[in-house]
Each structure stands twice: as structure tokens, then as C-alpha cells.
Amino acid sequence: MSHFTTLSTVAKRARLGRRTAAALTGLTTVTAPSAGAVEAPSSGWDHTYSGRGVRVYVEEHGDIISVCDTSTNGHSAWVTVDDLTQNRSGYKVTASGGKGSCATRRASDGIKYNPDEGMRIGLNYEGEGGNGSYAVSFVNDH
């Protein structure tokens, strides 16, 4: 079971706030994306995984998982997140707004989205409507 302290929650929020501010500073023109579309940053992530029609971003600090649809193939992109060490099914994140749309989950969304530190996390991701998925894993050590 994950445990939180006030200090770690405040520190996580401060780091996320700094990253958001840095990303927004670089914008000169802002256009309104379609509903549910969120642009994922191009750098600063601990892990980035790509496949046909899908890109997955992982930031271990804050347990942030983002999935983005990278193709105009008519299919949503998704990722499942599982705790392989404890053999537990986790959750699924789906970017369903078409090419360029992203969906994100983070530890602050609830206990379900906050895997324990030191666990091997498995990602299964896909972006072609069931025509081939990808599987990777990493140790959640931040």
C-alpha cells in the first residue's frame, strides 16, 4: 500500500507546477484542441515508448502516465498499467480524441493510480484498433 506524507505531496505538486509553467512559457500561440485533447511535452519524461499510432510518456515522480494518439487511422490509442511485481491489474488510459489527443493519469488522481515505489510496472499499449500491441516494463524507483 502506498503511503503519503504532506511533504511529498507538496513537493510533487511543486515539481509538476514548475514543469507546467516551463511548458507554458514556450508557447506563443494557443489554439483550443478538441475535447479531451492534451498535448504531451516532448522532453523531460523518464520513459517514452512509441508504436504504430501510439506514444506513451512516463514520469515516475508523481506516477504520471500519458498516452497520445499519433495516427489518423480512426482508432483510439490506449495503455494499460499493471503492477507486475505484485501481479496486480492496474488501470487503462485511453486517448480517444483522434490524432494529437492525449489522456493522462497521475498519482494525485487516487490510490488506484499510485503504484508502490520499487515495483516493476508493466505497460501494454496499442493504437491500431487491436492490430498489434506493445509491452514494456520499468521499475518505479522515483
Task: Summarize the model shown.
The chain is about 15% helix and about 35% strand. With about 140 residues, it is an alpha+beta fold.
Description:
This protein is α+β, with helices and mostly antiparallel strands. It has one domain: Sandwich (Immunoglobulin-like). A four-stranded antiparallel β-sheet has the order 1-2-3-6, with no helix packed on it. A four-stranded antiparallel β-sheet has the order 5-4-7-8, with no helix packed on it.
Task: Note the main attributes of this structure.
142 residues, alpha+beta, Immunoglobulin-like, four-stranded antiparallel β-sheet, 8 strands, globular, disordered N terminus
Strand fraction? 25-35%
**Count of domain modules:** 1
Quantity of strands, as a count: 8
3D shape: globular
Order of helices and strands: HEEEEEEEE
Kindly report how far apart the N and C termini lie: 16 Å
Strand order of the largest sheet: 1-2-3-6
What kind of oligomer do you see? single chain
Structural class, from secondary structure content?
A: alpha+beta
Question: Runs with pLDDT <50, length 5+?
Answer: 1-37
| CATH topology type | Immunoglobulin-like
Mind telling me which CATH architecture this is? Answer: Sandwich
Give the C-level CATH assignment.
Answer: Mainly Beta
Helix content: 10-25%
Average pLDDT: 78
Backbone CA Rg: 15 Å
The largest β sheet comes out as: 4 strands, antiparallel
How many separate helices? 1
Secondary structure layout:
Layout: H1 6-25, E1 47-51, E2 54-59, E3 64-69, E4 77-83, E5 88-95, E6 102-105, E7 120-126, E8 134-139
Antiparallel strand pairs: 1-2, 2-3, 3-6, 4-5, 4-7, 7-8
